[in-house]
User: Fold this.
Amino acid sequence: MYRAPRGTSDILPREQGYWSYIRQKAAAICELYSYQRIDTPTFEDAGLFVRSIGEETDIVEKEMYTLEDRSGDKLTLRPEGTASVCRAYVEHGMHTLPQPVRLYYDAAIFRYERPQAGRYREHHQFGVEALGEIDPALDAEIIDIAWQFYVNLGLDGLILNLNSIGCNVCRPAYLDTLRGYYAQHLSMLCPDCQRRLARNPLRLLDCKKASCIPLADQAPRSTDYLCGECADHFDQLERYLALLNLPFIVNHRLVRGLDYYTKTVFEIAPEGEVVAQATIGAGGRYDNLIEQLGGKPTPAIGFATGIERLVLNLKKQKRAVPEPVSPSVFIAYLGQDAKEEAIKLVSLLRRSGLSVILACGDRSLKAQLKQANSTGARQAVIIGEDEIKRGTVVLRDMDKGEQQTIQLGEVVKVLSRS
Ligand code: HAM
Assistant:
């Protein structure tokens, strides 16, 4: 028997209420903040992601789904959304539009990870990106969208972690200091961190291993090494977040697992959750990425949130989501002539805007009414041989169990009123 591949899920009808609720709230907040939808291909040139996310990252080193197609092109199923949006920005000359260009997406994302609760090989992200502006007010806008989105979903008890990891000017000196600090404690580091120290020392700060956490806590802080421009940017952002009443914690261990970030980085997670897969949303600035991909120097910032993790948290917090809508009418029939009349009636009712389910097969009336009940339809129309002869139907109120006979020609009018 085939099963869904490891780390992937079917989203069954009973789960869809959560998904449509989240997607409606996402579209609504984007309309409010004036972000426009963009859809990019499910796969891209592998090089796009290697270049953007960085060769030393977990994603590029071990998580990408890369294949060679029949013409020998190397393609990768997108392991995140930002690189594709930047590629599209450059490809379609969006720098000629009024800046910043505000975009959002909702897309399947693929990473070969070790599956567990909240971590999958295929997951879905809702993300927003604002491209073409350096003003820290835009950082505040993106963080505000993320926060208000969670508030609108009804999620409580979230913590916003914030940091600045500097830019090309100030980061090299910070990285040297960090390497020097960790070199003194090499034997205490986990094997992964020992390996990463030379090439990607920032990642040591967010190692979740018990032996590495105290070292990271004591490590030099990026915010103490910011250049004037990055320090001003961070100060202003903190001021703007305070103006927006957004509670945040400056967390100097927050660095993110993708290499393109500059200056602002942030993550939002349920309070008290320490594991990496608890984070529900994250983002930051990536002021060099568009230039790296062949565009003009273009500052940008964005954020993405995992929809599966939102569903998990909505369930954990027992948030009710709207129930699926039941059909208005169920049509039962007895005999072939009645069935043909029923098929015509269903079509008429649907064209008048009513959602209708037609019984199938040759079941008894009792079985058909049981089925009507299970669909949640408020009204049932019953057509039998006698009704056909008289040009009538029986209309049954499913809640009250009351029945009345009406003219076939009146059904659309009567049901449209009820
Ligand atoms: P990310 O932190 O890798 O960032 O992913 C964003 C969110 O996607 C995470 O906070 C989490 O909710 C969800 N997520 C990530 N991996 C998985 C997984 N394996 N299973 C389930 N959910 C997952 C990015 O991807 C950046 N592109 C975000 C960004 C946008 N930065 C700037 N703009």
